[in-house]
Amino acid sequence: MLKALALKELRELAPIAALGLLAYASIVGHSMGYRLPFMSAQPADVPFVLDDFLVPLVFVAITLAMLLGFRQTAFESLAGTWNWLLHRPLTRTRLFAVKLLVGGGVYTICTAFAIVWYACWADMPGKHASPFFWSMTLDAWRVWLTAGAVYLASFLCGLWPGRWFGMRIFALAGVGVILFFFAMAFDDSRWQPIGWGAPPLIMAALASSVFFVARSRDYS
Amino acid sequence: MSDAILTQRLTRYYGRRAVVNSLDLRVPQGSVYGFLGRNGAGKSTTIKMLTGMVQPDSGRAFVLGEDVSQLAPATRARIAYLAEGHPLYRWMTVGEMARFASAFYPSWNDRLLEQILDHFALPRRTKIRRLSNGQRAQLSLALAVAPDPELLILDDPTLGLDTVVRREFLESLIQVIQRRGRTILFSSHILGDVERVADRIGILADGVLRVDCPTDVFKESVRKVLVEFGRTPPEFPGCAGLVSSRQVGATLELIVVGFGEEQRQACEALEPRAIDVIELNLEDAFIEYTRGPRRSLPIFATEHRDVESLGAQGAA
């Protein structure tokens, strides 16, 4: 039954994942110097350091994370299918764990794929006129980790039974502000451990909030 | 006989309003229970509390002997629930939906599902979004019945269906009922539907269970009593079983449960010209039982008076 549920989630998320992969392919292609429609060819001077990769990556990763989180929750509410799904004979914890694993997995794989693809290209000799070390990808992985928390925040916001949709967005905005604050800490090397530690802690808090809300909220 | 559903002082507030108020409901095993009430009476909220979709503010509910707040997946597998509006994944085809649903139940009866789908002529390759409301209701029923549940909880299953589809749906439901030992709780405000299938009814009014008895007993016990006077009727002092009383011209119209000698004496004490006791069908009984003080719109009353005065002019 968990496999059936995971497949259902995957099929629902497939169009969003496809769009995300397309957007990532555009960013990577652009950074590699390919001429793409509506974009000028701009090969990277120094991959991951002096290029046009990181800013679009932030934008696409956050958009993808938000779309996935809301698709898995708010759409069930809009379609009225919570009542059907939650009446299946499995615990809510397991049901939501499957949802989170699939949604989080799709986000993780899509975003990691873009970073790894670009890094592999950067690692190939003769592709650009600068040295490349895998440590140069750290900023991209930081974006990947931070947007993972945005996915969980979006999932929670979509699940939150606020009467007014703005109330749900407050939670997402709150998480955004906290993540932005911790992301800023990376710029100063003294605070980097906190900067790296904060997103996983926030993600753990968000995940447990998801399970709490899923168990305690009304599905009316 | 044990109870398939039992609630103890089940209460739920929305804001300050008690949508369900101290509900003590008992649905015996093997019975078909028609859960009636007007829009907003609290039927859907009660059903959602019984399925664990809504948490009660106080009180407890037991389904198949288990507390709803701790319903084990194995017990949930023995309960079918048709939510209002038949929500299903519209992007799936009928066949995909059936496969998806079957993955959750070890006791899934594929042959029974095929029979029901064939009976309803539901095409397996059609997307659910392309099905009519009636076909979606039929598919929901088929999916609910296929795991062979002991208890079916149906929240207004015929809402939005036309007369023919409703009749077909109910006939299928009757076939489902005929499978031994199955308990059904279904809410509705279409009394004809309830009359066809329910052997017991409960009427919820403003969150309070006002009636809980066998259908026939309810039909036989509610009476409209017309107490006619040649003058303005006096105030009715009240009697046991009085549901409502209102003045219509020179007549006092009473709705009484269990009209007997005591109630007749209370009427005769007012020295009326005549007393008429009228039997009500289930629909009339339900309407009289649940409608509030508001009656027809004043414009209709005016028209009525106009017709009366026209009649008087004609006679002159």
Of all protein chain pairs, which has the greatest interface, and how many residues does each chain bring to it? A-B, 23 and 27 residues
The share of residues in helices of chain B is: 25-40%
Oligomer: heterodimer
Distance from N terminus to C terminus of chain A (CA atoms, Å) equals: 25 Å
Number of strands of chain A: 0
Given helix and strand content, the structural type of chain B is alpha/beta
Low-confidence stretches of chain B: 294-316
Overall mean pLDDT of chain B stands at: 83
Q: Spatial order of the strands in the main sheet of chain B?
A: 7-8-9-4-10-11
Order of helices and strands of chain A: HHHHHHH
- Largest β sheet strand count, sense and barrel closure of chain B: 6 strands, mixed
Determine the strand fraction of chain A and express it as a percent band: under 5%
User: What radius of gyration of chain B results from the CA coordinates?
Assistant: 23 Å
H/I helix tally of chain B: 11
Average pLDDT, all residues of chain A? 84
Shape of chain B: elongated
Determine the fraction of residues in helical runs of chain A and give it as a percent range: over 70%
